[in-house]
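Hi C.,

You asked whether I'd gotten around to modeling the 97-residue construct. I have! Everything is below, sequence then structure, no commentary in between.
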Amino acid sequence: MIEKFTNKIIEGDSITILPQIPDGSTKLVRCDPPYFTACQGLLPSEIQTFDDYLNWYERWIKEISRILTDDGSFYVFVPPLEYGEVNLLIKKYFCQK
């Protein structure tokens, strides 16, 4: 299973792809998720409110924390209007340096 993800750039729905990746197997995750404030048409249809958006965000952040190695890095693009709430979610699962 891990071979299909080795040395690959993976583009797709994180909710379906991340659970397939083994624990602690990834050194780097870089993501640019759709922003609630600007890209609502790109979000899953079940996301109707900002709270829905944050719940969705937390689902894939939790998965990323599971797949990263202890010395791995996670980079995510966040717009200024969403930074406060998203930063709290990130702090819940990661030690920021």
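If it helps when you're writing up: The beta strands are 26-31, 68-76.

Thanks,
B.
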